[in-house]
Design goal:
The structure holds 2 protein chains of 2 kinds. Chain A is of the alpha/beta class. In chain A, 36% of the residues lie in helices and 25% in strands. Chain A is elongated, with a radius of gyration of 30 Å. Classes of the chains: A alpha/beta, B mainly beta.
Chain lengths: 211, 141
């Protein structure tokens, strides 16, 4: 009589208990918090947080370069010559720490690569002076090969700009608006020959799913 | 108890589905004869989105292009696009890293995506548009 009790079918409650246990084990093994290192796409859209990020930098640099290269004024300016430009700086007027030199580096690299402009680099003046001093003063260098002083080309245009932001937030939502303005000034006349601006809006909201 | 198991399964699936679909639709300008080739890798997205026009012209000796995207869906779509440029021999322009750019396309709206060749060597292009779920992005405080 006892054997009847052993072969008795398990109840629904017991069965669902087993299923629950199995599912939890599966979930734990699948979603385990392991550290995995992988290479990502450097050009991918990055939305880790609301702060100024790589996507914003790339967007600003690409849009400003495209706008400058496509403008009619630049078409006239670069028709027969490659103007020499000096990059002043992008003033960071936001509340964040942003490496604006990285933005101007991207813009000047893209402009140089287009073959339309040439650049002088004020950031390396001391290094150049040191090298020319060495070549002209030090007896180690053959004077016939030394680069003489006073032959560098002066910049005709200056590239400069501003990056500003408006940040607003409440308990559920945060919103940041960036405005990037860039200008190209003719150093001889002081006229601003070209200007453009681009805007970025980023919003963070609490997600419905996830923990 | 009876409802707990399926409910838990749904929750787990929702939490673990962290890999977004990244295939989309695109256009390739394969040759100098302006032969546009529309390529659809994601039919679900193609139902909601269409490329209706491709225009090219020369601006300051650079190839200038606009591609018109047209939404066929009532809700906003959160998309990304990327141009890739090629020279006359079909080689990708070296050193040019055009980024994926985020784009919000409102319901039934049309939008022109502008692209400018990075150098005068770049004569043909390809454009890729994809949908990546940004709404479900998790943020931790």
């Amino acid at each position: 009589m006892n054997t009847v009790n052993i072969t008795k079918k398990p109840t629904l409650k017991a069965l669902s208990g087993f299923v629950l246990l199995g599912l939890s084990a599966l979930a734990l093994s699948g979603c385990a918090n392991k550290a995995v290192v992988s290479y990502g796409d450097a050009q991918a859209v990055e939305t880790t947080d609301i702060n100024f990020g790589s996507t914003d930098l790339q967007k600003v640099a690409t849009q400003m370069t495209d706008s400058l290269l496509a403008s009619p004024v630049v078409g006239t300016m670069t028709a027969n010559t490659r103007p020499v430009v000096f990059v002043e700086r992008i003033k960071n007027k936001t509340s964040e720490h942003i490496d604006t030199e990285s933005i101007t580096d991207s813009i000047s690299t893209q402009l140089l690569r287009s073959g339309k402009f040439r650049f002088v680099d004020m950031g390396r003046v001391e290094a150049v002076r040191e090298q020319l001093n060495f070549q002209n003063v030090d007896a180690l260098v053959d004077p016939s090969t030394a680069v003489a002083f006073g032959q560098q080309v002066g910049a005709q245009y200056m590239l400069y700009g501003n990056l500003s932001s408006i940040v607003k937030s409440n308990e559920d939502k945060a919103d940041v608006y960036y405005k990037f303005t860039i200008r190209l000034m003719d150093l001889k006349s002081g006229l601003v020959e070209w200007a453009d601006e681009t805007e970025i809006r980023k919003t963070r909201e609490k997600s419905t799913f996830g923990w | 108890m009876k409802y707990l198991v399926p409910l838990l399964a749904v929750c787990l699936l929702a939490a673990c589905s962290s890999r977004p679909t990244t295939s989309g639709i695109g256009v390739e300008q394969a040759s100098a004869q302006y032969q546009q080739q529309l390529k659809v890798d994601n039919p679900d997205l193609a139902k909601k989105l269409a490329i209706t026009d491709v225009k090219t012209r020369q601006t300051n000796q650079l190839t200038d292009v606009v591609v018109t995207l047209s939404s066929q869906y009532k809700k906003s779509q959160y998309l990304q696009y990327q141009f890739t440029w090629y020279d006359a021999d079909g080689f990708v322009i070296k050193g040019n890293h055009s980024p994926w750019q985020a784009l919000t396309l409102f319901g039934f709206a049309n939008m022109q995506l502008p692209g400018l060749a990075p150098t005068s060597d770049a004569v043909t292009f390809s454009l890729a548009v994809r949908e990546v779920s940004t709404e479900a992005q998790e943020f931790k405080k």
